[in-house]
Amino acid sequence: MILSKKFLFLIALLCFFVTFNAKAQHNYIVHFNEKGQITDSLPSLLTNADTIRFDLISSPEGMEQRVTNAYLLYLQIIKNLDEKDKTDKTASAVLVNAGLEDEPHAKAILIDLQAMLADRLLKFLKVPENAAIIAKTRSLEADRRLLKKYRTNKEVDDYNLEGLNYPSLESLINVSYSVHYGFKRGFNPAIDSYPCPANIELSKVKGECCLFKWSSVANESEDFKKYKFVGAFSNPFTLRQHNLNLQIYNAQSSSLFKLHALAADIDYSDLTTAINKKFDDLAKDSTYKGLLTWLKSKYQGKEDKSAEVIAVNSNATVRKALVDAIKSLVDDEKKTIHTNSFYDFMFGLSWLTQGKSLSANPVAIPPKPDAKKELGKVTDSISAIDTAEKEISGRTALVQNASKSTVAGCCNTSFINILDNKYQSLQVLKDTLDKLKTRLKKEKDSLTNVPAAYAKSLAGLDQVFYKDSLLYAGIFVINAEQNRWLHPNLPGYNYLRNHNALNDVHHFDLHIRRNINETQQTDIFAINSDRNAKYALVTTSADLSPYDFFSMQIDQADGKAVAPGAPADKTIDASLQAVYKSYKDLFNYVNLFKNGVIDSSFTEKEDTSADYVSRWIKHTEPDVPGKATTYQITDPVSKKNLNSEGWGFSYNYDNLVRFSFKAGIAYSWLNRRTYVINQAANTATYTDAYAGLAPAIGFQVYTSKIDMKSQRFLPVSLYPFLYVGYMFHDTPANNFLFGGGFELISGVSIIGGVHLGKTQGLTLEQGNLLEKDYYKVAPFISLSVGIEAFKTIFSSSTLTDPSK
Fold first, then answer.
1. What is the 3-state secondary structure (H, E, C) of 235-291?
2. pTM of the predicted protein model
3. Which candidate in 44, 280, 668, 797 could, as Cys together with 755 as Cys, close a disulfide (CB 3.0–4.6 Å)?
4. How confident is the model at residue 12 (pLDDT cuts 50, 70, 90)?
């Protein structure tokens, strides 16, 4: 009865340990800051039973920067809209450059828009938190005075600015991020995606991005063979900051595009062709030809002086007729568009240019300039000038020599004067050619730089409007979860040793894994690494004893929508200025369509160059197990240790063993009987004594190999070992132990089995009683300890994750 109770107790205890030690799902969180840097340690082991969540934490400094940027953008738009034209100091430069300075509706929108932005900023400053942030860099009193000036200047009319859907200050502050997650090389397990918001708004202190759970995979063993990560598969993840400009524009466009339905059908090429044809028809009349030649050259910034003479001397009646003709063209072209709605549309987009200009497409990529042909012409011209200068130099020398001859009295005075004049003319011609050559060289340099400048403008535009920002590109190594009861050594598990490149390459692991066994592997990563950084390991091994935006500086591809024409010449009278103004207004207006009309929405392009990456560092485990490995992370070029204190990092590559020797204490239920014979009386008396508690030593043979440096409870699960031992009780030959047991922790075993020991009985020989020894068996139980137990208990590696 007593034995049965003890047996039931042992069974219950075993069930408790099995339940207690069952593999639990782990929930991990990857924390990012606004720069895309990982801020907290990462797990050294992930399996497809784990879940992971990505969180991005907003810093007070980051919030302050976004608040300041949004405030300054609004302020800059107001100031730029208020900029005056250099020629007409009373007119808005933005309107003049768009050919709209005489349009009442356009002027009203400009004033209303300034007033609305000023009003928003004043309300924004009424929030104490906002005012405190702005006061760090600006004078609130001065800004309020300035803003009130614009609000006071507001002209009251029935125009409603709500149709513009102009970006709010809040929309300029709330940057959004997302995590993208995908499997490599066609390895495609099912992913259970938990609900999460599409964007993280950084106005919140903390935003949860996405939570994923990996589920089991079919044919795992076959698929795992494809990866360098033995027994695991690699899984990339990226953190992206969405393009704030594009995000705001797409939110705005649904409302804006109701304003320009007709404008969207306008073709700039057809428009300019039609207008130029009308001017060509006018130029057929010789009365207008000189004027038109001058207008075209002046607008293009290459003013024809001979044409200017014709223009200045032209008849006032002719000028007026041309003004009327141009104004008629302007009116005809403007009638093709529902102008008021289109003006609204362009002002609605003015935030994309910081209010510097108006355009139907302020973010268009311009046609690639063909500078090669022009460069060839300039180069040929320079060569021609070089040839001409050589000839001039030769002729100058001849004139000089002839002049010297005349001094000797060969020629009369008039001939000497002719030679002298010729010499002066040649010198003037040479000086003129030198100046022309200098100008052409500058033009050549400019044309040479056109491709680079064009590429730079595209890159700037692409980044500011079209592309997101790839902040982090990392990788997880996911292991197929092993049933530790069936596979106690967790074969194939890949443990990571993460090092933080932003913190002296120190360990960046939640739990530093100091031991792996010969069926596993380790990979080393530099976390938060620069994408261009390279690393190398210097590794040594030693034998073991058996036992880690928002920048609104838009680089517009086509510059401001302003004509490159030179400022008006004060020598030209008012009527001629009126002719040029009408001509300029027409083409400035037409140029609003130079890049077409902006699309109603854009798909965000993906940035491919991450600011930070997880960099895998090539590493090979020792050729044979049973090694203590130490490595330094170095620069592959300079060979310098990247840890400023010269630290190395270490782990043990353990071998698995089949045999173990233990010593401990055993308790035996062997009842040993001892007889004492009275030969005279031929009688015997006996005493019974249990073997009880005594020291024991023994040899264990494991049915599943064991890692003696494992810190897990039940390191070989419920796989038993076979045991042969000896119990120090009575004479040496009297106590043998046979049985089996379980390893509780490495080096500590519980053993049970049979105690084979000698006892005595009686026998008769010729009628006399004699003792007789014989063996009998009884159960025993033992707790045995090996030397590795002390390493397990007292080793610093107990800090590793016990659940793994």
1. EEEEEEECCHHHHHHHHHHHHHCCCCCCHHHCCHHHHHHHHHHHHHHHHCCHHHHHH
2. 0.68
3. 668
4. low
